[in-house]
């Protein structure tokens, strides 16, 4: 045990008694599910299935969804092995409830305190734990290793901030990374960073690739195709500050198509309707009886991005038009042959966007020139569709590489 890890365990142990109050406060702010706070303390009464169990963890929506191909292969190739998936956000929990295959269990990840980590390991007793991207929680990792759990860190990456923080504690980083039986870096840059911290990297595999195309309800697809007179423009996964940018760009278009605007957090739907109406645009919520005359349909529903990407003439991948978000997944559009436009702020998806840009499969626009980018795609749909074909070819190749990485993880499974 290094000094910094010992201090961390002592501090989190001292704070653990006040965790219930802190979690209750977060629940009042909508950041926790008040009915499932016991899971965050590893005190939930959920029964563990008999036999071996594999635990997979992704922090939020993107990481959790990248786990799904591995979950599906585990259920298909190791049906006798139970699968537990944990995540940390209410949005990811809602999506996983819809997307996890039968037999897989979802729980909220416990807080990273010694007691909670110990209870979690005792209750679930996993044979293998798979962490996605940069989830290096010291207490969970140390307790898992002490319990004899095999550990994998996949699609591994470290942000500039995380790398700097762990570099100031090299002994702690080396201790934690040495516990992994397999580390697969997201890209060459991530590999260099983990190796600089003492990790033994076994290869590269980005689990954001390898997923199947987003699913769709065929009845809903047919109904929406009949409702839209022409393919809509899709604005996907907006954050505060981006809605104003895209609405201003849409308002300035000389020829305006129908628009589907899907906020990243659906509870923001009514506020976006107000922003649209303030610009003279008719707007309606998807969750209510939509107005057929609406210029903007605000998609305040979960699990329907597969529907919108299939319908759209072109799309804007938001989370990239303001700083501090880091961009969202451009691969979902590519797998469904939907042309994509993105803003410049895509640090969470640097490798994917770099590959797509090199393949001429994505259009990068500044927030100020978004209107011109939209007008260009709408005016020349053939050029936009050719860009989508190039994006699909690039993503198909990377998906095949990622599936090979999944096979290496399955080798660790009981």
Automatic annotation (TrEMBL):
Alphabetical list of InterPro entries matching this protein: Glycos_transf_N (IPR007507), Glycos_transf_N_sf (IPR038107), Kdotransferase (IPR039901)
EC numbers for this chain: 2.4.99.12
UniProt key word Protein transport: no
Enzymatic class: transferase
Entries under Pfam families matching the protein: Glycos_transf_N
3-deoxy-D-manno-octulosonic-acid transferase N-terminal domain: residues covered: 35-199
Subcellular location: Cell membrane
Mitochondrion in keyword set: no
Family the entry assigns: Belongs to the glycosyltransferase group 1 family.
Major localization class: membrane
Reaction(s) the record says it catalyses: lipid IVA (E. coli) + CMP-3-deoxy-beta-D-manno-octulosonate = alpha-Kdo-(2->6)-lipid IVA (E. coli) + CMP + H(+)
UniProt keyword annotations, A-Z: Cell membrane, Lipopolysaccharide biosynthesis, Membrane, Transferase
Pathway the protein takes part in: Bacterial outer membrane biogenesis; LPS core biosynthesis
GO molecular function: transferase activity
Function, as annotated: Involved in lipopolysaccharide (LPS) biosynthesis. Catalyzes the transfer of 3-deoxy-D-manno-octulosonate (Kdo) residue(s) from CMP-Kdo to lipid IV(A), the tetraacyldisaccharide-1,4'-bisphosphate precursor of lipid A.
Species annotation: Caulobacter segnis
Entry protein name: 3-deoxy-D-manno-octulosonic acid transferase
